[in-house]
Amino acid sequence: MLLEIRDLRVKYGNIEALHGISFHVEKGEIVTLIGANGAGKTTTLHSIMRLPPPEAPKVLSGDILFEGMSLLSTEPHDVVRKLHVALVPEGRHIFGNLTVMENLTLATYARKDGASAISADLDRVFDLFPRLAERRNQRSESLSGGEQQMLALGRALMSKCQTLLLDEPSMGLSPLLMYEMFRTLKRLNEQGLTILLIEQNARLALRFAHRGYVLDTGEIVASGSSAELAADPAVKKAYLGG
Amino acid sequence: MESLIQNILNALQWGSFYSLIALGYCLVYGVLSLINFAHGDIFMAGAYFAFFGATFLLGKTGVIPPGMPGWAVLALTIPISMILTSALGVTLERVAYRPLRRKGAHKLYVVITALMCGLVLENGNLALFGASRKNFPTLVPQIVYSLGGVSVTNLKVAVILVAVLSFLFLHYVVGKTKIGMAMQAISYDRFAVPLMGIPTDTVIVFTFVLGSSFAALAGVLFAMSYPVLDPFMGALIGWKAFIAAVVGGIGSIRGAFAGGFLLGFVEIMVVAFFPSTFRDLIAFSILLLILSLKPTGLFGVARRTKI
Question: How many angstroms separate the CA atoms of B289 and B255, rounded?
Answer without folding.
Answer: 17
